Amino acid sequence: MFNHMVEHRLDEVFQALGHPTRRAMLADLAARERTVGQLGEPFAISFAAASKHVKVLERAGLVERRREGRTHVCRLAPEPIEDAYRWLARYQRFWEERLDALEAELRRADDPS
Q1: What span, in angstroms and rounded, lies between the C-alpha atoms of 90 and 101?
Q2: Residue 68 backbone dihedrals phi, psi, to 5 degrees
Q3: Taking each helix axis from N to C terminus, what angle separates 47-59 and 20-31, rounded to the nearest 10 degrees?
């Protein structure tokens, strides 16, 4: 069972994952640490816009940022993704059963006999 803090964090995680730019930033961070500027480069967005996306990811706990002089270096924090996966996994059996039933019904409908 998930506690209230994890449930609240899931709201922020799913909100953060709801934007394609942020999902791409996370994919980039899964491979290596990046600066905020590097995270924004593939999207031709301003540093300020990239920073706003990173802040949303940070608020959700998906990214940790550290300073190296004037540079902000980001790294992926996988724990919130793991929490989201566990939450989604609770519904996997439900959907698999429904999809199996749908497949069986479609096969019956296609069977000419």
Answers
A1: 19
A2: -125, 90
A3: 80
Chain-centre distance of CA 20, in angstroms? 10
**Structural contact between residues 60 and 13, judged by C-beta atoms closer than 8 angstroms:** yes
Per-residue confidence (pLDDT) for residue 108, from 0 to 100 = 87
Residue 28 has a CB neighbour count (10 Å cut-off) of 17
* CATH architecture observed for domain 4-110: Orthogonal Bundle (1.10)
- Structural domain boundaries of the chain? 4-110
Q: What is the pLDDT of residue 109?
A: 86
Instruction: Supply the pLDDT for residue 5.
Output: 56
